[in-house]
Amino acid sequence: MKITILGSAGQVGAYLTQYLKAKGHTVVEFDVANADWQDMTRIPNVNLRDALVDTDFCFFLAFDVGGSHYLKKYQHTFNFINNNARLMANAFQYLEEFKTPFVFASSQMSSMSYSPYGVMKRVGELYTESLGGKIVKFWNVYGIENDMEKAHVITDFIVKGFRNGVIDMMTDGTEQREFLYAEDCCEALEAVMENYDDFTSFDPLHITSFVSTSILEVGNIIQDLFAADGQEVKVVPADSKDTVQKDARNQADPFITKWWKPKTSIEEGIANVYREMKHYHE
Predict the structure, then answer these.
(1) What does pTM read for this prediction?
(2) Which end of the chain is more exposed for a tag (fewer CB within 10 A), N or C?
(3) Domain spans of the chain?
(4) What do you get for the CA distance between the two ends of the chain, in Å?
(5) pLDDT value at position 75?
């Protein structure tokens, strides 16, 4: 099968690209990180059109997004809103033109109207519903990241441990999150693709571990991994509370577990990421 991945160099996209290639699929990679001509905010973009014109399936993962540090700094800016509006209008236009089966990667934050990121994801959901595509909602997917400016909490903490031995947190760490390892996420996306006709555009396809972990617990898990390697790392919580999600928590719907179930614990997943990052650091 010929599969186009929009956002193929991103946190989920990079894992999914390798995963699908290993399954024997022909994967068309499209991401501005690969080349300027793959910039989806350019309207029109004939290269994007060419990538979608004869593809069998599309995973729409591309978005201007990062972890809490990135969102806190940029999500209220013109460029953040404009970039995401343009790349969505661009891609959805071609998906509509070619009637391509596709999955749009949304977020559990799409119901949080105070968040520009959440609002933009909700717009993407409306596009998807109008075209009959399928919507998946990610809940804090983690894995190796190449762009540390946009790093999410787990990779950010590990990098801080390697760099200065201190994991200085943005918050007091009491907020709870459901974290999902990227390889589990790939299996979930494959399940949605393979059972595409079993779903409607309105089904609650929540891709998560269904297990809550506090940010402080994440820090402690990473601290223990460093300790096992004989390196002392200190976890330093801040006094402030979470301002990006305002410690809001949505309830994940287990609907998708009829087709897929997560299998990697938070301890196992973080250990996998830590080992890979340790290799690159050394």
Answers:
(1) 0.92
(2) C
(3) 2-281
(4) 38
(5) 87
